[in-house]
Amino acid sequence: MATHHIEVRVKPRAGLLDPQGAAVRHALESLGFSGVAEVRVGKVIDLDIEATSASEAIAAAEEMCRKLLANPVTEDFTVGRGPAAQPAGAKS
Amino acid sequence: MRAAVVTFPGSNCDYDCYKALQLFPGAEPRFVWHRERSLGDVDAVFLPGGFAHGDYLRAGAIARFSPVMTAVSAFAREGGLVVGICNGFQILCESGLLPGALLRNRTLRFRSQWVHIRVETTDNPFASAYDAGDVLRIPIAHGEGNYYADEKTLAELEDEDRVVFRYVNREGAVDPEANPNGSARSIAGILSHERNVLGLMPHPERAMEPILGSEDGRGLFESILASARVPGAAR
Q: How far apart are CA B57 and CA B165, in angstroms?
């Protein structure tokens, strides 16, 4: 068993209106950042998972997404290796 | 009629529901804490508004896994009457007892205001005391009430007459200006396929007495009381 650092990215499903992204785009525009055609705001979830292999940890994270971390009606997710959720030396 | 009002950590309309039920001599409300595994012998269950579990992750996403929800799902499968108001509606969608999802309001603003909703169908245990076409004045208070479902699901809801309430203007007409959150097809409340589960964003329990500004919410409670008295209607 080893600790595997897994990063989950959850985004509003493509084609679905993302009012938060639209508001951020307007704010960028008013700050003078022109040429931003589209903004989508999602969330990143870092997980430290005890598993025998990275692929097992990724499979577990995908199951977590299907059951809880992402809403299957409105969100898409990707799972991959990422940074430690709890950086080494930090108090837990 | 015995009714369970479920309290989650973060519920804030549980007492409103309880008090609304107490206005009717035939109703016996009782609180059920979210850690309970049984609802007891009840005829109806209310999932009240609020911010269950802080709305962390997504509104309703964590509440869905509260122990009591297993009992609520079983109760719903047996045909028991379940009403989810506001956060309760979000929990019902997250738990799959109702289709679709409630997204961030299109305006991005938390909307706390009066709205008008139209009764679209009375063929269910929750709106039988109203007439189809009645326009009710009911308050809303939510940040995530923008009803979303894919086109197929929306068509199904319409074909099966499962849209109970729609946001309308004062005159009772569907009007984008009167849709407070951007909900698809101005949907404010829907039924499950079996018509025994209702989810709605507006708060009928806050429109029960003239001193509250409206008593248009009473009909929903009267409907439930009437159908609970009909043997076989609630179970």
A: 28
Using CB atoms, pick whichever of A17, A23, A71 lies closest to residue B101: A71
Q: For strands B146-148 and B101-103, give the pairing.
A: antiparallel
pLDDT in tens, B123-157: 999 999 999 999 999 999 999 999 999 999 999 99
Residue in B101, B105, B106 nearest the CB of A74: B101
A14 close contact with B: CB closer than 8 A: no
> Which residues make Cβ contacts (< 8 Å) with residue B22, sequence separation at least 6?
B29
ipTM surpasses 0.85 = no
User: Using the beta-carbon criterion (under 8 Å), do B106 and A68 form an inter-chain contact?
Assistant: no
Q: Under CATH, what is the fold of the domain A2-81?
A: Mth169; Chain: A , (3.30.1280)
Closest to B102 measured CA to CA, from B193, B168, B183: B183
Residue B100 at interface with chain A, using a CB cutoff of 8 Å = yes
Instruction: Catalogue all structural domains in chain B, each as residue range(s) with its CATH number.
Output: 2-229 (3.40.50.880)
Q: Does B182 touch chain A (CB under 8 A)?
A: yes
Q: Per the structure block, which two tokens stand in for B135?
A: 């326009």
Given the residues B94, B120, B144, B205, select the one marked as catalytic: B205
pLDDT digit string (tens) for B26-35? Answer: 999 999 999 9
pLDDT-derived band at A83, boundaries 50, 70, 90? confident
